[in-house]
């Protein structure tokens, strides 16, 4: 049993009357010569680290090594939300917080990368709090997220240097959206629609880190991408379908990534990095 | 931040568990320090670390210096002491100097060269690159070209270049039923200093290492760092 597209993954789940996370976990165990329990335990360890990074992130007031980021998660979590619900505002704070922890040399789980490490943990912690999902359900949904990440990696990229930020924060948001759908009882094909809708909205996102550091705009992109993930999950669960099949959306993301100039692929030479302020920051630091 | 190549495991897209901010500039740098430490027989006393390319231009902001120091201290990429590694190295009497260098276009943009002296005065020069997603490759040891991923149990010998050494070494490895996954042999010049790096699926037993010690001047066996 194996899969390299979302269509295959969805069909495997449907044909075996399983959830996507079951298939992803089974394939992983099979190819790594591990038991289902061993694979589960490794994922549980990752979830523990993610949870811990969320707790630390919400309280963190430390600036990063460069001083370019830090403290925004705390600001948001301490203030009374004006437009967002309390829960959603806290989720955004969590995404910012984990990304800030990463920037100040704290412990995180790359998901799929260090630069996009806040999105999936924040989405799942938000869902857990809102609907009281068990640890077991949350860890299962991490396999859903991982399956989506693997498919994106095979057919597009999960590297900002290769595909821009859409490949990192974009894919992280897609991973989160699929996980949220399956957590809420959505079908395998709804997972596909969530991923497609999410990547549609993240398409073209460039990787333009100021001074080449994983801070500006990475920390903020974690917050924005979290919202895109939740937005896509909500729509897919309501039955909204992507008119472009999900695997074609992923392919399109790859083409867009290839078409992006080098200056917008993690080189720190274009976009926000090349603004007068961005250049000034880089000059001051190095 | 960079993660090249296609993931074929869930733990490549959810993982590694690491200290931020960057898999290529932080996690990989720890591993470069770790593998260099493992190549030395004794603890590191002094290291001159030369940063090339993007390691030189953005390394400090990513904590690459702290990460290398952490690796030389024997920490792994998920160790929360990485951020204090420079102070910890100092306290242990480990002297680390950082410099920027231009190694030229032949080297990967994320490359470090470590000139290391151990507590007994033995020295080694290791050049290693960060390839993305936290993966590394050691590309030179003492100026000899090599390719070492650090993902396997690895045997390294430094010996005088002469016929038969490679055959003898692989025979010893085969005698202990250890499978070789990759192998690279290189030398300065004919009859000069030569290097052999063998990546294996299992660790070599001590008895095999003793036999290898007879045929080579220096034998190092290092565990996987992943």
Measured as a percent range, the helix fraction of chain B is: 25-40%
CATH superfamily label of the largest domain in chain B: D-3-phosphoglycerate dehydrogenase, domain 3
Work out the radius of gyration of chain A: 18 Å
Q: Overall 3D geometry of chain A?
A: globular
Largest sheet report of chain B: 6 strands, mixed
Main β-sheet, spatial strand arrangement of chain B: 3-2-4-5-6-7
Structural class of chain A: mainly alpha
What's the architecture of chain A in CATH terms?
Orthogonal Bundle
Q: How many H/I helices of chain A?
A: 13
| Helix percentage of chain A | 55-70%
Main sheet properties of chain A? none
Q: Which H/E pattern describes the elements of chain B? A: HEHEHHHEEEEEEHEEHE
Summarize the structure.
The complex is a heterodimer of chains A (286) and B (226). Chain A is built from 13 helices and 1 strand.
What this model shows, in words?
Chain A is 66% helix and 1% strand. Chain A has 286 residues and is mostly helical. In chain A, helix 3 (36-59) crosses helix 7, helix 5 (86-103) runs antiparallel to helix 6 and helix 10 (188-202) packs parallel to helix 12 (246-259). Chain B folds into two domains: 10-141, 2-Layer Sandwich (60s Ribosomal Protein L30, Chain: A), CATH 3.30.1330.90; 153-222, 2-Layer Sandwich (Alpha-Beta Plaits), CATH 3.30.70.260. In chain B, 28% of the residues lie in helices and 35% in strands. The mean pLDDT of chain B is 92. Classes of the chains: A mainly alpha (286), B alpha+beta (226). At the A-B interface, helix 2, helix 3, helix 5, strand 1 and helix 7 of A face helix 1, strand 1, helix 2 and helix 3 of B.
């Amino acid at each position: 049993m194996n899969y390299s597209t979302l269509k295959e993954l969805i069909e495997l789940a449907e044909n075996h009357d399983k959830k996507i996370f079951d298939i992803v976990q089974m394939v992983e165990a099979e190819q790594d010569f591990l038991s289902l329990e061993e694979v589960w335990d490794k994922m549980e360890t990752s979830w523990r680290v993610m949870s811990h990074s969320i707790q630390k992130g919400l309280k963190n007031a430390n600036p990063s090594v460069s001083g370019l980021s830090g403290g925004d998660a705390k600001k948001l979590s301490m203030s009374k939300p004006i437009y967002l619900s309390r829960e959603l505002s806290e989720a955004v704070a969590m995404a910012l917080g984990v990304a800030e922890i990463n920037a100040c040399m704290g412990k995180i789980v790359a998901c799929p990368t260090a630069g996009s490490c806040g999105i999936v943990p924040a989405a799942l912690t938000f869902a857990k709090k809102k609907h009281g999902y068990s640890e077991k359900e949350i860890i299962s949904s991490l396999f859903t997220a991982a399956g989506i990440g693997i498919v994106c990696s095979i057919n597009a990229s999960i590297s900002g240097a290769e595909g821009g930020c859409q490949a990192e924060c974009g894919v992280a948001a897609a991973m989160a959206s699929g996980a949220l759908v399956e957590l809420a009882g959505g079908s395998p094909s709804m997972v596909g629609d969530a991923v497609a809708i999410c990547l549609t909205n993240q398409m073209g996102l460039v990787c333009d880190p100021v001074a080449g550091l994983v801070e500006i705009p990475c920390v903020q992109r974690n917050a924005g991408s979290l919202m895109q993930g939740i937005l896509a999950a909500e729509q897919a669960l309501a039955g909204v379908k992507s008119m472009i099949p999900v695997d074609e959306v992923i392919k399109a993301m790859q083409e867009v990534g290839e078409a992006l100039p080098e200056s917008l692929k993690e080189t720190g030479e274009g976009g926000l990095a090349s603004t007068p302020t961005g250049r000034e920051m880089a000059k001051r630091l190095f | 931040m960079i993660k090249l190549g296609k993931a074929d495991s869930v733990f490549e897209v959810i993982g590694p568990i690491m200290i931020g901010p960057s898999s290529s500039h932080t996690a990989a740098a720890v591993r470069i320090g770790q593998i260099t430490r493992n190549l030395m027989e004794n603890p590191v006393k002094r290291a001159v670390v030369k940063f090339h390319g993007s390691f030189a231009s953005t390394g400090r902001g990513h904590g690459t210096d702290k990460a290398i120091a952490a690796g030389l201290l024997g920490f792994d990429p998920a160790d929360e002491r990485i951020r204090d590694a420079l102070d910890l190295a100092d306290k242990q009497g480990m002297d680390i100097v950082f410099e920027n260098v231009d190694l030229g276009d032949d080297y990967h943009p994320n490359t470090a060269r470590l000139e290391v002296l151990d507590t007994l005065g033995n020295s080694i020069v290791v050049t290693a690159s960060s390839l993305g997603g936290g993966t590394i490759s050691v590309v030179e040891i003492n100026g000899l070209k090599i390719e070492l991923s650090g993902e396997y149990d690895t045997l390294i010998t430094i010996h005088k270049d002469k016929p038969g050494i490679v055959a003898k070494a692989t025979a010893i490895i085969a005698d202990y039923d250890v499978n070789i996954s990759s192998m690279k042999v290189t030398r300065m010049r004919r009859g000069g200093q030569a290097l052999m790096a063998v990546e294996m699926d299992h660790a070599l037993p001590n008895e095999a290492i003793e036999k290898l010690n007879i045929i080579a001047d220096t034998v190092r066996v290092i565990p996987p760092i992943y």
